[in-house]
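#onboarding

Welcome to the new folks! Below is a worked example of what a typical request in this channel looks like: someone posts a single protein sequence, and someone else replies with the predicted structure as tokens. Don't worry about understanding the tokens yet, we'll cover that in week two.

Example request:
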Amino acid sequence: MEIDYYKNPFASKRMNVIARNGVVCTGNNLATQAGLRMLLQGGNAVDAAIATAACLTVVEPCSNGLGSDGFAIVWMKDKMYGMNSSGHSPYAISADQIDEIPKRGWIPVTVPGAVKGWKALSERFGSLPFKKLLEPAIDYAKNGYPVSAEIARMWKKALNAIPNSEEFKGWYETFTFDGKTPEPGQMICMPKLADALEKIADTNTDALYYGELASRIDEESRKFGDFCVRKI
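Example response:
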């Protein structure tokens, strides 16, 4: 493939990025730095991608979360691999019970797949310990980071869309500060998210699926949706 670096056909007119040992690209500079840290420590592209994805759950929580799904296309040693780590529906829910899927609440929630996908990618393709990959995300959640203007805008939009009710109490406790969302440039810490990430790192993801975090998710799903997420 021939590239003419003197021509830029795109409307954005951004400068070309040229690197010797790889690049990391996200919509958030802090997440990009997390991936670069893994490369600088001897990690490969998969290590960088996992660290970046984990970091985005902290620095861009309006678009990413520990309860999300994960998909990947990996090119490794001249072979292509695909991963579909999307979660299935909760154990106790049936299509016969549902007339329509609402935008909010427990009905549209599926079993989290992204975190299990991180583990699978790390075990098969990664070169650094899984626990190390979550260090940047834990650091930002525990010790704080400055919120960008675009993330502040999206965060405020999310607040306006989520009901302030008992069912969403956990969301408000985690993602609001004195009942408000962050302003651009505001330094914030999210200790509840840091705690969850540490448990995931310490147990090689098992806490989210079999341990304390899984039990808390199951308890909430039974309380507000009567759709337990796992079989007891």
